[in-house]
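Before the break, one more example. Copy the sequence into your notebook; we will annotate it together after we see the structure.
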Amino acid sequence: MSVAPGPSAFDRAAITRSWRRRHTLTSSLLTVFTWLVALLACVPLFSVLYMLVVKGGARLSLAVFTELPPVAFEPGGGFGNAIVGTGVMVGIAALLAVPAGILIAVYLAEFGRASRIARIARFCIKTLTGMPSILAGVFAYAAVVLVTGGYSAPAGGVALALLMLPTVVLTAEESLRMVPQPMREAAYGIGCTPTQAVLRVVLPTAAPGALTGIMLAVARASGETAPLLFTALFSDYWINQLGTIELMEPTASLAVLIYNYSGMPFENQIELAWAASLVLVILVMLANGAGRLLGRNRTGH
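Here is what the structure looks like once it is written out:
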């Protein structure tokens, strides 16, 4: 009894790649072109990182993290006050943007998903995403600086919070939407109210995704310069003087220090600008890496 040959030999012959076929050649050329474009796009990034490591790394020492900025012709110095000021203003921005962003996201994803208010809110949030950062500084200048009568860390925090808010809202809303509906139904089935279901089931499940958005928002806010020029300005002193924290005074930041020192004719200040740039890039990369890690843990790959 003869057995008909299986289709395996025919299938292998049919799917064998032939360079004579036009679609195979086109696919290979497009793949090579894509890799070349990707490598070309990485050239500016790695060249900037190389310059920062070479020029900024040579100046890094314990002194730059603990000392104040030097006067024009004086050697040495550091930018410890700028690191502290950046952390304080980003912390203020996070305190303002994160709770507000999570609450807005919960309303958009859980309670008012299809309402008119939700549609208007989504439009406003997406508009804020593309808003130039300098406009956030102008708003904070009018709303805080003119009202309080001076540049301050809270004014800078308000400006940075406006830039952080869209990222926090959009990522948190998407994370809440990805929570499986059966989890909500199970919570309702055991007697939870909608508020209890959100607080005890939905939010804990969506927390890794929301944290990813928060870390990405922090990374963006840490590198902003224009809003701080209108709100916090700069200072050559520590934010904590004589044992008290002077929040309502001009506050130093890494981004503004780099902006100020990069255009000075003094070699010492230029070296400090390179070192501050390297520190700022490292901080931003750490925040981005933390966000990516949280997102990977959420998806499992």
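Residues 102 and 142 are 26 Å apart (CA to CA). The radius of gyration is 26 Å. Try to locate both features in your own notes.
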